[in-house]
Write a structure and sequence with these properties.
Two copies of one chain form a homodimer. The first copy, chain A, has about 300 residues and is mostly helical. The first copy, chain A, has one domain: Farnesyl Diphosphate Synthase (Orthogonal Bundle), CATH 1.10.600. Helix content of chain A is about 75%, strand content about 0%. Chain A has 16 helices and two strands. In chain A, strand 1 and strand 2 form a beta hairpin. Chain A is globular, with a radius of gyration of 18 Å. The first copy, chain A, starts with a helix and ends with a helix. At the A-B interface, helix 3, helix 5, helix 7, helix 8 and helix 9 of A face helix 3, helix 5, helix 7, helix 8 and helix 9 of B.
Chain lengths: ~300, ~300
């Protein structure tokens, strides 16, 4: 299967981190622990290897290296982040949520494995994220203090006041046009919190000042926003083949998005602005340019 | 609402820990973080406060105190364990799993809040478990090393090779009579792993030798087994009112249980044996008797 355009761009930009992560994940998934039922393992691996962009792991590894930590050391954290992200996609696609048949050009997890297994595979990925990071970060030489703190931030970003909270707002908002402020709230929680946590927790593994950490934090905030606005735009502008998932779902479900709240042109402006804000935040640390800046630019222009 | 009989017994035996935990949880649930959508919070609180036995938190607090740690210090861990347990019940009850309308005498979460919210409330509880324990154990004075290690054990016990794996075996097993060995495998993962982890992680917070830790480990293993065998027995012997949930579900779903594999009489013998094994394991540490021994005896005799 050909990679969608924006995945090519991301992989080219961040090929080193992308490959590091793919190798690590491939290695992890290569050996099943005897205690894990084989069908559960297949279901988890199916969604983990469905060809995601690996944006969050790449951000985490890149931020770690810029914070002075070899990306190898941050791999267990990057994996945990991708496990949580993948779990959220599996559950989001289920009939009681978005009811989608297609994800990344393949049948969604519950279409391939049934609803019960999809439900448990999502739970299992969430829990594996924590056992993996808490066991393997210390083994990779990260202190217990940094391990606890980084993983706590990750859990908080994904939990009731972060990603999960955003999913509820998104679902609640389906029946009404709550406008622009609401779209910002949903995006900030549903997508933004985990993208920001990827950057912040990566940077935090290193020895980094609070001032510098603030730059990563702001970068992550704006990047997450840009990412969600573009997601809303692509839902109305792209076809199923280009997108690898069902397009025009937001409108069909009456969701409150940046496009429904602001219209397409204005949403495109907002995406460009958010991307520029992200670049500005991180340019303070890298006035000569950096991969993180290129990433923010490429994500605003992504096509899938 | 009157408490079911075995909850009375457990509360009487372990009133101090029960009350400590209820106060802590009540306090936590008393203030909603602004970032958490109110409907999500209600749904999470509804299941957390549905009148559970609090067996796992009690085991954790009791083991911590016996390991030399004030139970106050272990409360964030006990809460995390109960969050995970509650999440598993919410998801287990959903239509794609056991499809149950009643839990602890009240409508199940998805009957009260809808499937989408029940799904996310379960996820949110899993994630809150980790942000809470990783943030609040260190604040209570537990070292980062003990925090990371205890929470890693908890995550592993709940994940793909523990509780989640057991749920899959349980579901897969519904269509066949796989016999006794299979019933032991399911029980050990689905119920046993988290009950054992409650005891082990509590004890681990203190300064405890590997030999002593082994006693807690064995105690937890046998206790978890006894608990599941009695659960299987109660499913066939009790009424809806006595049980607070729908009885005779196992047989209707063709589940492989200790009763279906061994018959009622033999299952009762197995439960008594498992309970005695649990007592024996911990009697090494408390030859004069202990709450943990009384708990194991009362659980084998429980009526709901």
């Amino acid at each position: 299967m050909r990679m969608p355009e924006s995945e090519d761009a991301l992989a080219t930009l961040s090929g080193h981190y992308f490959q590091l992560f793919e190798d690590y994940l491939g290695n992890l998934l290569g050996t099943r622990d005897d205690g894990v039922p084989s069908r559960l393992w297949e279901s988890m691996a199916y969604s983990l290897q469905a060809g995601g962009k690996r944006l969050r792991p790449i951000l985490c590894l890149a931020a770690a290296e810029r914070g002075g930590v070899g990306p190898q050391k941050a791999l267990p954290l990057a994996a945990a982040i991708e496990f949580i992200h993948t779990a959220s996609l599996i559950h989001d696609d289920m009939p009681c949520m978005d009811d989608d048949d297609l994800r990344r050009g393949k049948p969604t997890n519950h279409r391939a494995f049934g609803e019960a297994l999809a439900l448990i595979a999502g739970d299992a990925l969430l829990l594996w994220a924590f056992s993996h990071a808490l066991t393997h970060l210390p083994r990779a030489g990260v202190s217990f203090e940094k391990t606890s703190k980084a993983v706590a931030i990750l859990a908080e970003a994904s939990g009731p006041s972060g990603m999960c909270g955003g999913q509820v707002l998104d679902t609640d908002g389906e029946s009404r046009r709550a406008g622009g402020d609401f779209a910002f709230s949903v995006a900030s929680a549903k997508t933004g919190a985990l993208i920001r946590a990827s950057v912040v927790t990566g940077a935090l593994l290193g020895d980094i000042s609070d001032t510098d950490l603030r730059c990563y934090y702001d970068y992550g905030t704006h990047l997450g926003l840009a990412f969600q606005i573009v997601d809303d735009i692509l839902d109305v502008t792209r076809t199923r083949d280009e997108l690898g998932k069902t397009p025009h779902k937001d409108e069909a479900q009456g969701k409150n998005t940046f496009v429904s709240a602001y219209g397409l042109d204005e949403a495109q402006k907002l995406a460009a602005e958010a991307s520029e804000e992200a670049c500005r935040a991180i340019e303070e640390l890298f006035p000569e340019g950096d991969l993180l800046i290129d990433l923010a630019k490429s994500l605003a222009d992504r096509k899938s």
